[in-house]
Amino acid sequence: MDSGTVSKDQSSSAEQQPDAPSMFEVKAIPLKGIGLVALQDIPQGTLIIQEKPLLVAHPGAPDALEILLSSKLKKLDKPSQRQFLSLHNNFPGKHPFGGIMRTNALPCGSGSEIGAIYPTICRINHSCLPNSQNTWNSDTEIETIFAIKPISCGEEITISYDRGGPSAARQAFLKQAFGFQCSCAVCSQSPSLLRESDNRRSRIQELDDQIGDPFRMMQNPVESLKDCHSLLQTLNAEYGGYPGALMARLYYDAFQISIAHGDKARASVFAEKAYEVRLMCEGGDTPEAKKMKNLAANPSAHSSFMAYSSKWKNTKKKLAGEVDEEAFERWLFRTSD
């Protein structure tokens, strides 16, 4: 998200993180500007960094946003002001503060229009195949970065800024929203491998749309649940077995399909799996993680319990230890129905 030199303020901000003072360093990355690089092997599920925002703002007309940001900056102390101004601006012109905001801001939650600037987290660069996940915790008002796969010492720490889809759609969005062209490991593949990746990502979007169709979920839940299984396989293939938060969303969709037809047994398993993914991606103290933990213990508390039918009414779980993994997965996703 950034380029330029690392200021003393920026480096000290990273070093003062209470979670892991020597887990990473802020340094120049070839062809990317500034980024974060691991100083040690980082296991999957590790909290790498957490920060409160320097400032937050709603999007607005350029002139109005510039005035708003100027006012907010004046209220910050001098080190914080320097941290903001040291961030890269991919949109130079007569709105320098707005350009920095546009280049670096992360949304305060999925789909939120409110953007936030962080002293160190905004140094983390994008990858279409990220090794870390950024999450806004609305309870604590803190942004966290967790490792969603093992990260090797010397490897750059990356997150995803894009909205999914094939490479052309991702590139267009990243250029318009952040002002850069992605050259990550996925986008830099050979044409044949990139086509395969694009096909998988298009299939991911297609399956996601099908799963989200409430009429299909009501009328043909078996096929909807099978789509969840197909999506699971496609995500694992595209993301090398580390899809991160995308997997939590999938399991929650499967939970909703199951509970809407009265199947508390499968719904509980899906909620447990969604909670486990969220625990790995964002910790256990986010509202979303707490919700999944509660639903795993009491799936019928969900508002859509038997909203469509009671034809799957079932409370007996098939324990994974009683059958082999493939048989349990077939039972869970009803792929043999």
Low-confidence stretches: 2-20
CATH class of the largest domain: Mainly Beta
- CATH fold category name of the largest domain: Beta-clip-like
Which structural class fits the helix and strand makeup?
alpha+beta
Count of strand segments: 10
In N-to-C order, the SSE pattern is HEEEEHHHEEEEEEHHHHHHHH
- Find the CATH superfamily of the largest domain: SET domain
Nearest-angstrom radius of gyration? Answer: 22 Å
Give the neighbour order of strands across the main sheet.
1-2-10-7
Biggest β-sheet: count, sense, barrel? 4 strands, mixed
- Report the oligomer: single chain
As a percent range, the share of strand residues is 5-15%
Q: With helices defined by DSSP (H or I, 4 residues minimum), what is the helix count? A: 12
End-to-end Cα distance, whole Å, is 47 Å
Report the helical percentage: 40-55%
Question: What's the pLDDT, averaged over the residues?
Answer: 91
Number of domains: 2
Shape, per Cα inertia axes:
globular
CATH architecture term of the largest domain:
Beta Complex
Domain SET: 22-162
Biased composition (Polar residues): 1-16
Region (Disordered): 1-22
Organism: Bionectria ochroleuca (Gliocladium roseum)
